[in-house]
Every structure is written in C-alpha cells, then in structure tokens.
Amino acid sequence: MAEASPAPFLKFEDEEGREIPLISANVWKIGRGEQNAVVLIDDMVSRNHAMIQQTEDGEFYLIDMDSANGSLVNERKLTAPTVLRDGDHLAFGKSRLCFRNPAQPAAASPSPESQQVVSVVVMYLREFTVVAQDMDTGVLSQLVSTWSAEVDRLVHYGGGTAQKHLGDSVVSVWTHGAKGREHIEILRILRAVAGVARMTATLHESFDLSEPLSIGAGVNTELAAIGDTVNAAFRLQSAIKELDADLVIGASTFDYLRTWPDWAGHLPSSQENLKGDDASGRTWQISFAALSEFLAHHREDTGTTAIPTVPSH
C-alpha cells in the first residue's frame, strides 16, 4: 500500500517551530483575531490580515486582505495573490512562517512544444471590502456565489478554458487556436469582459444595494506555458488597482488590436509604464464605455451571437 503524501503546513520560524497543517479546508485565515486559523499575537498584524486559499487544482495562494502593514513572500511585499511554493518564507508584522508542501513537484522548464499563445484575464469586484463590512454574511455569500457563477457562465460562453476564484477576483485563461486569428479571438474575450461588467452593474437590484457594483479587468496575451500565465494575470490586477482603470490591456494584446483599422478611433487609450517595470511591462488603460463602442462596430467579427443576458434571481 502506497504511503500518503505529506500534507502541506505552515511552520513558525522561531525557537518553538510550531506547525499548522493545511488540511480539511480550502481557506485558512491569518490575523490577530481569535477566529483565524492562524492567530498571530502581534500589534503589527491586522485582525483579518491575510488568507491562504487552495484552488481546485491543488495550488495554494497567499492573499493579503488589505492589511495595514502588508504581507511579504520571500521579503517581497504582496501586491496581488501569489502562488506559494515549497519553502517560501512568509512575513506578517514581526511574525515569520515558512510554507512547506513536501509533495509539491518541482517546476519543470517548459519545452517549446508546451508553449502556445494564451490570453489571461483577471476580473475583480471593486470596493468589495467596503461592501462586505455592511452586509449580512449570508447575503454576502449569496452575492459572491451569484457573481462568480455568472462570471463562469460568460467566460465559458466566450471560449474561456479555465477559471480560478481567489477572494474577490476571478482569473480566466483563453488558449488561442490557429495562428492569424488571435485578433478575432481577443474580440470574443473583450466581449466576455464587457458582459461581466454589465452583469455586475445589475446585481445591486437583486441584493438591495444602495449603489451599483463594478469591476476592474485586465487582459494579457503572450506565448507561454499555461501554468505560468497566472503570474502575468496578477501583475495586471496590480496595475488595475494602481491606475484606477476600468480595463488594463497588456502590450502584446494591444498589438493584436492594432489589426483593426479603426482601433485608434474607438479605443482612445493612454499608455502607462508601471513603476519599476521595463518596456515589456507597458500597459494601456481603456474605459468600458470606449470598449463597448469599439465592440459595437465589430458585432459580426467574432462569429458568435450576442452574449446572453444575466437571468433574474
């Protein structure tokens, strides 16, 4: 009989070396509050500081919950959810822990055959933390479940092949097919994002919210192994929040959009180079209003009918 794989765990990097197994759940909250799975008695740690979330494919992510002093992974401050690897060092205030996942396979270098053109989309609910503070827990759970289910539906309709739900964010992956049709497929992606934006703006009617909800979204296209695309998506998520934009588009995605002769007239974008990034990190921010106008002039170019509207709840 084969031995069970060692379970992942957190280990305190102090003399006691206490270990906290990461089993029997998929979310472990970290903070000063006693309700957390990992309680840190530290004035520099927020009551609800961060959380570790395990996705359906078995990966573990560290997500900072808008803490006052931030979270570190290997001495780098977290700006977006980050995949944890065996041996990563985590810091919250003065507390130091090590993430261990002995059964995690070593990352292999992708071969040219395993690489293909993929587009990664990250969407997140704006002001989610503020909304959550004033909402009943049961209603909040229903709101998030409804939003997530509708995002999945619209992404799937638009040809998306994978989704990761991380806190108030959803990451989706589109795998491109025949070379030369990327610009057509990117239109389908943008149409799906626009559909999610419209759907999100109507949710307040079903949940008796005083103001409509909205999303921020980012799209990046590159030649990469699919397993590496999540990191690019999270860099875009950081850009969305930093620029306070509706939609942030990566440089290579924007290059595909140049295929359309009228792209400049309908996408009055502004180029940004994020602080600390080189030329490859350039992004363009576009409003959903400008995106809708652009898509309206290309209704027949995606080879699909209009995305179905959100059903009433």
Structure summarized in a few sentences:
The protein has helices at residues 128-133, 137-157, 182-207, 229-243, 251-257, 263-266, 288-296; strands spanning 9-12, 19-21, 27-31, 38-39, 50-54, 60-64, 71-73, 76-77, 82-83, 89-92, 95-100, 116-125, 162-166, 169-175, 215-224, 247-250, 270-273, 282-286. It is an alpha+beta fold and 313 residues long.
* Share of helix, binned: 25-40%
Shape: globular
Would you tell me the overall average pLDDT? 81
**SSE-based structural type:** alpha+beta
Order of helices and strands: EEEEEEEEEEEEHHEEHEHEHHEEH
Distance between the termini: 49 Å
- The number of helical elements comes to 7
What is the alpha-carbon Rg in Å?
21 Å
The biggest sheet, with number of strands, parallel, antiparallel or mixed sense and barrel status, is: 7 strands, mixed
Low-confidence segments, given as residue ranges, are 276-280, 303-313
